[in-house]
Amino acid sequence: MEAFLVSTGIVAIAEIGDKTQLLALLLAAKFRRPVPIILGIFVATIANHAGAAALGAAISALIGPDTMRWLLAAGFAAMGIWVLVPDKVDDDEAPKAPRFGVFGATVIAFFLLEMGDKTQIATIALAARYSEWWVVTMGTTLGMMIANVPAVLIGQAAATTLPLPVVRVVAALAFFVLAVLLALDAFPQLVG
């Protein structure tokens, strides 16, 4: 349960103001079809984060617990810094026409834009920490949906009402706290 809740919370917070959330806003404004967009986000996130979690679990199996603790602490600190940097989506990153339909365009755009994204990197780190990579995938997927479904449903209004700088600072603090706890070994259950 801890793996699921931590994964959900970290990704839900980190996703606020992320380029994939901005893409969700763009897709909602462009296509005005929330159901296929939401389903596309879900499918793309599961595919992307399952691969990331499997990679994290494989890395964890190759590295000892002490080394893993320091790598995770450094990774979470780096994530904290990265979250503070606002993302932008260029106009040319949004799909021009729904060649594959709204659902297909969403799956392709989300999957590609999530490659190397901070939430994908967080998924790798979380799966390296927790042995149940599939639970991490479920948690990070739920976190993505918590952040992106409102963006799709509310559309442009969400971007103007959410205090993104404050959310970025809270997300960064969460990553920094995890990094410090890991570095101090004050939270040993974070390193399996």
TrEMBL record:
Principal location listed in the UniProt entry: membrane
Ranges in coiled-coil conformation: none
**Gene Ontology CC terms:** membrane
Its transmembrane ranges are 38-63, 70-85, 97-113, 133-154, 166-187
The UniProt keyword set, sorted, is: Membrane, Transmembrane, Transmembrane helix
Question: Which family would the database say this protein is a member of?
Answer: Belongs to the GDT1 family.
Q: How does it sit in the membrane?
A: Multi-pass membrane protein
Q: What is this protein called in UniProt?
A: GDT1 family protein
InterPro entries linked to this entry = GDT1-like (IPR001727)
- What are the subcellular locations of this protein? Membrane
What is the source species? Magnetospirillum gryphiswaldense
Which GO molecular function annotation, any one, does this entry have?
metal ion transmembrane transporter activity
Domain of life, source organism: Bacteria
